[in-house]
Amino acid sequence: MDERALLEKVARGEVSVDTAMDALRTLPFEDLGYAVVDHHRRIRQGVCEVIYCAGKTPEQTAGIVRSMVERGEVNILCTRADEATHAAVYAVEPDCERHEAARITVVRRRKIQTGVGTILVATGGTSDMKVAEEAAVTAEVLGNHVERVYDVGVAGLHRLLARIDRIAAANVIIAVAGMEGALPSVIGGLSDRPVIAVPTSVGYGAAQGGMAALMAMLNSCASGITVVNIDNGFGAGYAAALMNRPGRIEGGTIS
Q1: CA nearest to 185, candidates 208, 154, 146, 140
Q2: 103 and 25 inside one domain
Q3: How many other C-beta atoms lie within 10 A of the C-beta of residue 43?
Q4: Residues 13-29 pLDDT 10s
Q5: 127 shares a domain with 103
Q6: What is the C-alpha to C-alpha distance for residues 255 and 130, in angstroms, rounded to an integer?
Q7: Judgement on whether residues 122 and 235 belong to the same structural domain of the protein
Q8: How many Å apart are CA 97 and CA 178, to the nearest integer?
Q9: Which of 200, 209, 161, 196 has its CA nearest to residue 177?
């Protein structure tokens, strides 16, 4: 049950205090044996628990979804979800959609708008798109307008400069790149907005599975760049959504 709805029913006299207390006792978390579902995360953080599906069986993910749906959650992100996991979730809650490129299943999605501006997701190459889509879909589900600018890496810098107007208009920018990971530094030198750098595991041998890009981004000479873990599109999308909330960034200033 939604906590606010419960309290409103108490205020109207539709639910007794004792009944509400019984409900609240079970709301903080639920122990499923293989997972302890945090039902109060939305109250603390503004977003309900996100399910990381890798390493879980499809049945375990579906069980967590069932628990969350029964508590009234309407927007549930299941990241790194494969087809078998999506099928198991669909069996529990048919009102879900699969974003194949992002490897995300969204359960009972209700479109919301909480962001104050545009989040721009840019990639160095087409090979970075899976990670970029994970970031983009995450930010969209959390209530943001997202635009995409893909395959604008520094090997053809003119491709990025041709989109300078879109870079300037964005409130937060997510720059996703593998290889040498130079894209966030270039964008950071062109924009006065927060830049979240996402290194990907794209690249040949010396790229070391994304370590070269990660180190380059951590050592960027462009000031203020935030770096997330290798291939962590979800983390970038979530961070961008936090930055894009009202009262965080408006008119180019932090209030």
Answers
A1: 154
A2: yes
A3: 12
A4: 888 888 877 776 666 77
A5: no
A6: 33
A7: yes
A8: 29
A9: 200
Written as one string, the DSSP assignment of the chain is --HHHHHHHHHHTSS-HHHHHHHHHHSSEEE-SS-EEETTHHHHHSSPPPEE-TTS-HHHHHHHHHHHHHTT---EEEES--HHHHHHHHHH-SSEEEETTTTEEEES-------SSEEEEEESSGGGHHHHHHHHHHHHHTT-EEEEE-S--GGGHHHHHTTHHHHHH-SEEEEEE-TT--HHHHHHTT-SS-EEEEE-S-SSGGGGGGHHHHHHHHT-SSTT-EE--TT-HHHHHHHHHHHTSTTTSBTTB--
Task: Tell me which residue has tokens 């299941």.
Answer: 78
Q: pTM, whole model, 2 decimals?
A: 0.83
Nearest to 176 by CA among 209, 152, 147: 152
pLDDT score at 49: 87
The CATH number of whichever domain residue 232 belongs to comes to 3.40.50.1970
pLDDT tens-digit map of 41-71: 777 777 888 999 999 999 999 999 998 888 8
**Domain extent for 150:** 118-243
Contact 187, 167 (CB under 8 A): yes
Contact by Cβ (8 Å): 68, 74: no
Both tokens of 194, joined, read 């927060």
Q: CB-hemisphere CA count at 13 Å for 236?
A: 36
> Which two structure tokens, joined as six digits, stand for 59?
């049945």
| Look-up of token digits 């062109």 | 190
Take residue 182 and report the two structure tokens written for it: 């130079």
Work out how many domains the chain is built from and give that number: 2
Q: Are strands 104-107 and 118-123 parallel, antiparallel or unpaired?
A: unpaired
